[in-house]
Amino acid sequence: METVAVISKVQKGFIAAIGLSIVIVIVSLIGINSQTRESSSPEANEQKPFEPVTEVTENFYLRISGDLFKTETGYRLDEGFIPSLAQTLPKDQAQTPYSIVATDIDGSQKTYYSLAKYCAPTGSDYCIGKDALLMPIGERSFWEPTTILITNVTQSIEIRVQNKTIKTFQKVGRGPSILSFSKKEAKQKLYGEERSGIDVTWEIEDGNNGRSWPLLEYMTNEESWQPLYAFLDPKKYRSYFIDPKSNIHTTLDVITLRLLVTDGFFLAQQNLEPIPLTIEDKKITLSLSGVTHGGIRTVGQNTNIDVRFMDPETGIGCNGQGCAFEGSEPRYKVTWFSSKQNICEGDVYNGVLMYTYKKVGEHKIGVRVEHAKKPEINAEISATVTVEPSLFPLTDNSPNCSY
What we know:
Blueprint: H1 2-39, H2 42-45, E1 54-57, E2 60-70, E3 75-84, E4 98-104, E5 109-114, E6 116-121, E7 127-131, E8 140-150, E9 154-161, E10 164-170, E11 177-190, E12 193-205, E13 213-219, E14 225-230, E15 239-242, E16 254-255, E17 257-262, E18 267-271, E19 275-276, E20 287-289, E21 296-298, E22 302-310, E23 317-318, E24 332-338, E25 348-349, E26 352-356, E27 361-371, E28 378-388
Parallel strand pairs: 21-28
Antiparallel strand pairs: 1-18, 2-3, 2-8, 4-5, 4-9, 6-7, 6-8, 9-10, 11-12, 12-15, 13-14, 13-17, 16-19, 17-18, 20-22, 22-23, 22-26, 24-27, 25-26, 27-28
Keywords: Membrane, Transmembrane, Transmembrane helix
Transmembrane segments: 12-32
């Protein structure tokens, strides 16, 4: 009987433990379910409004160019600054009479060399490029863009011609500020056609180092930025019209813009709220060569047909190879077709359709281009040719194909 009593106590304890575990599991499930309801609530799914943030840096690249004038006392440069956060410096520069010297706070210097070309008149509609040192007094030449590195210890920038300083920029106080950067839908007439787009506007305030130069950029992919326009007359230009179909070439589904503003020593930047792109913005326009719509041919005649288009995501011109460059995989699938004849693999060479008119009647010959990863980006074009009988019999070694 004692043994039975012991077993009974053990059973009761085991049952109690199971009951406690069930309670814990139920409480946990209730907690998880409430968390799920809380996370799926409308408040949790609401996106926070975009808040512009201005970032300031003293480490960037600066491209300097401008008009170099020859005066009675020497030379004068009307400069233009273009900032960049991703640039490369030239290597092993050859020494020239035109140099830019950046001096750090400790007195150390880095010299960058450039070129300046004068367009000497010939009495005709063209001129001859010559070294700026040869231009007469009162004429101007172009100081070619020269990239230099700016850091937080850069204190001055000197422009020199034949080792003589003609202009100095000194770092003092604070840099420029971006007061506003905004966008709105707009329309503009371009080449006689009204286009819908986006009008981007901004307001900037110069710092203690004099006037500032803005640069508008957009993202071409997840890592790279592309300049849209550099405003070398910052007081005149405070806005820019963007036509997504012609100005923007990006693999992203949105337009991401940023404004860079520099005085040569400080760089302020601000991003704009991303602008969604539509399929219409990435529309492909195709053109055919080697075939004419409404043309007339005779049996046995042949032609080479190629397709041309611009990749809306990169801005690169492409052909029947589908935007395959330097061994890369084609970005587009290109499919040729004919209403009258089969198109075989051997009929296409390097993207070009080699087509022989083998049958009498109407031949609708065309091509379909489709993005390899985004099939919604596609286009099709065709041309109809009437083929008449020939006086000479056609010798056809591949009757099931078109070549």
